[in-house]
Amino acid sequence: MQLHRFGGYIQTIYLAEYDHGLLLLDGCSRADVGTVLRFIRDKLRRPITDLKLVVVTHMHPDHAGAAGRLKALTGCQIASGEAERHWYSGLDGRLMHLTDVALAQYVATRLKRRRRNIWYPAKLHPDVVLSDGQPLPGFEEWQTVTTHGHTDRDISLHHLPSRRIYVADLMVKVKGRYVPPFPIFHPNRYRESLAKVRELEPHSVILAHGGEVRLTDKEYDHLATLAPRKPKTHWRAVKARFQRALLPGAGH
């Protein structure tokens, strides 16, 4: 297995190459469709139909945005974690979808990326639903690890032979330090997920935002210390901002 790493629109793309096919570790953003296909065709010199499986670790724009289009163009399957309902269900979900797309565009602007179309469907219809401990179909040396907290359906992918684990947004690297992501909808589950990954004692941890790293005990402890005790979400952030505007001194 060769794990290829290359730059995406606002995140790093990881593509596992085997003789029998290609595995995309996450669903990227809508703007990354051409980037992925060109890499397969021009760098690997393989037909795009060799892409067999795209995993969607969670439903945010830079992790789910390209999945549907890649399936349409290559015939690949889409896999994602178990969840009771669509992430962006209902009116609140639709508003959150709009907000997440806007936040992704904001990140792209901060990274000085040219403005691109990153709109994608709010509902995912996976071919394969993955449970904790389940091997990836066709790529059985990769094992699913549920790592909820950022959302209610996050999964990580553990490559058993090399003891490397792709954790998507379980943590992000900011100014040289590892910090929890925003948002965190389920803080208790988030701390449990951190502990689960730590207990696996991986040789390295692969981040969507921060590359492949080896975390020390001190860095795991730092992450656990920063992990919130209450949900940190879009709506709570907006509410707190309104409170500060209407009630000067609130929260101080």
From TrEMBL:
It comes from the Bacteria. Residues 10-209 form the Metallo-beta-lactamase domain. InterPro entries: Metallo-B-lactamas, NDM-1-like, RibonucZ/Hydroxyglut_hydro. Pfam families: Lactamase_B (PF00753). PANTHER family: METALLO-BETA-LACTAMASE DOMAIN-CONTAINING (PTHR42951). This is Glyoxylase, beta-lactamase superfamily II. It comes from Ferrimonas marina.
